[in-house]
Amino acid sequence: MGMKAVGFSLRINPSICFTQNPPKPSSKLVRCSLTPDGAATGLAERPWKLADARLVLEDGSVWRAKSFGASGTQVGEVVFNTSLTGYQEILTDPSYAGQFVLMTNPHIGNTGVNFDDEESSQCFLAGLVIRSLSINTSNWRCAETLGDYLAERNIMGIYDVDTRAITRRLRQDGSLIGVLSTEQSKPDEELLEMSRSWDIVGIDLISGVSCKSPYEWVDKTKSEWDFNSNGRDRETYRVIAYDFGIKHNILRRLASYGCQITVVPSTWPAAETLKMKPDGVLFSNGPGDPSAVPYAVETVKEILGKVPVFGICMGHQLLGQALGGKTFKMKFGHHGGNHPVRNLRNGHVEISAQNHNYAVDPASLPEGVEVTHVNLNDRSCAGLAYPSLNIMSLQYHPEASPGPHDSDCGENFVLHLILTYWFSVFPF
Ligand SMILES: NC(=O)CC[C@H](N)C(=O)O
């Protein structure tokens, strides 16, 4: 009665072009914005700050935004992540090297960052794209604000950008390369050209994120956070973990389950690994195109059959190739904390944390390789086993950092499975 229905209240300036249907790549630029333009004077602080950054996508769309963190110009592939929280773990996940992570949850930064949630020693991603940057931080573990954290690590972030519209674009047309810039002197056309002349396919990104020499891992999941360790606190198993961009929580979870772990670089020779006589070898997650790292596939091949192995994400993709299979690039991949996966061995459905743009093509795998898990959103291969060679692998993240713990508990407790499969009940 006299009241207007108010729907989703994005303040969009109707005079500025905003399209739901993305234009196909053309040389034309389409400018999209939620906030008026402003020079990067630094005078206007958030939330009153004017737009001082641009994200130019290879499809010709230009997204005006406000910057936080570092400034400059950076190219990368834009992917969207549907996790509600866990942005610090996402920022420090080395698998995001070369990518801009766009968070679909509109409100980011409210818990700041802390000392404990780091998944690696630095941020390897190209940048962070969010809708709304929390103007204050409140958490008992907070050590600093998200903006300060990114600035110190020289990582660019933008906010006040229509993340829903960009996500629709990525879902409809697939992953896009983008250029993020705070440099007002660079015309849109130059940034567009930059985005179109860069590619992430076929590039070895793991060598840039792997450790340079072997080291022993000591940290366990803190008892206050340990949701399940079955009381295994003695170091029982010797594990070599190949670091293709390994997340610390994989190591923490294995250590909590009694593994004594040596982390080795991606180029560590298989012969050296076998000389160390481990009980099992873990091939970790890692960034980029799994078909661009044939040397890592060779290492995996040399180890297969000689010692039980387990692969996570990139490790799973390398194992798939070592078994004779092929990987392919997905339309926009899986990035988030709520992907349903069916364990085909017991019929159980696990809600899983995922972060990948490539997948193993099950049709390319030789006979004897078993697809053990399927992503229920798109039926893609989410897990493999080859019992006669003591191989097990998962395309997703059983360490759940961030993410649900389904894969880390009960019968589906994946890391538990590694140990039981590897060391006790695996049918050798
Ligand atoms: N998390 C990962 O290991 C990612 C694997 C690979 N880089 C992909 O995008 O598919």
Question: What are the main properties of this structure?
Answer:
Glucose Oxidase, domain 1; single chain; 18% helix; 428 residues; 7-stranded mixed barrel; binds glutamine; Rossmann fold; alpha/beta; disordered N terminus; disordered C terminus; 10-stranded mixed beta sheet; globular
SSE inventory with pairings:
Blueprint: E1 30-33, E2 53-57, E3 61-69, E4 73-81, H1 87-91, E5 99-103, E6 107-108, E7 127-129, E8 132-133, H2 146-152, E9 156-159, H3 163-173, E10 176-181, H4 188-196, E11 215-217, E12 237-243, H5 248-256, E13 259-265, H6 270-275, E14 280-283, H7 294-303, E15 309-312, H8 314-322, E16 326-343, E17 349-361, E18 370-375, E19 381-386, E20 391-394, H9 414-424
Parallel strand pairs: 1-3, 4-5, 5-7, 6-8, 7-9, 12-13, 12-14, 14-15, 15-20
Antiparallel strand pairs: 2-3, 2-10, 3-9, 4-10, 11-13, 16-17, 16-18, 18-19, 19-20
The protein binds glutamine.
GO cellular component, one term: carbamoyl-phosphate synthase complex
GO biological process, one term: 'de novo' pyrimidine nucleobase biosynthetic process
GO molecular function, one term: ATP binding
